[in-house]
Known about the structure:
Layout (H helix, E strand, L loop, with lengths): L2 H32 L5 H8 L3 H7 L3 H18 L1 H7 L2 H19 L9 H8 L2 H17 L9 H7 L10 H18 L5 H8 L1
Amino acid sequence: MTTDQTHVTYRTQRKAAARNRVAILEAAHELLAESADVSMNEIAKRAGVGAGTLYRHFPAREDLILAVYQHDVRKLVDSVGEVLASHPALEAFTAWFETLAAYIRVKHGLGEALHNAAIQDAINETYAPVVAAVTKLLDACVADNSVRPGLDPADVLLLMGYLWRVAPGEDGIRQGRRLTRIVLDGIRTCPAPDSLEGKRT
Length: 201
């Protein structure tokens, strides 16, 4: 085999490996959303790969769940522009956070692995991109006068944390949306205190 042929073979193998990794992550995303107890073999089958291929990419279940979470969050961060283009700013804000909450619930499947410093560091790496995405959403909401200016994106992210603490299922979704209305009432644009004072007098 010539050097050029070797390079072509290597590139082909790398592309196939990259495709397999994405297929595994997409399959895991779908199946973990259905059940946190899904087996690695079920994920491999849905992805159309052998168990050996799955374990070469993700030696442990925790590695796979973490990779799914990171993959999902990167996609979500990259989606801000598209979400804002297709929804009014405040609706985009709400829809984006509901999706983030669904992704963070997957992270809870890491269980005891969250005490592993390396895994916790990897999760923490997603914080800055998420805050940057929240900043864009808030800027859009301020620009169309949906929420008041001066809100700290990190504070808003912390405030919205209830979304990934509500129970799974329809009851949890409904509760989350009720809580979202309360939060939005608190951050919407409102008259300045002086104006309110003037109305009372």
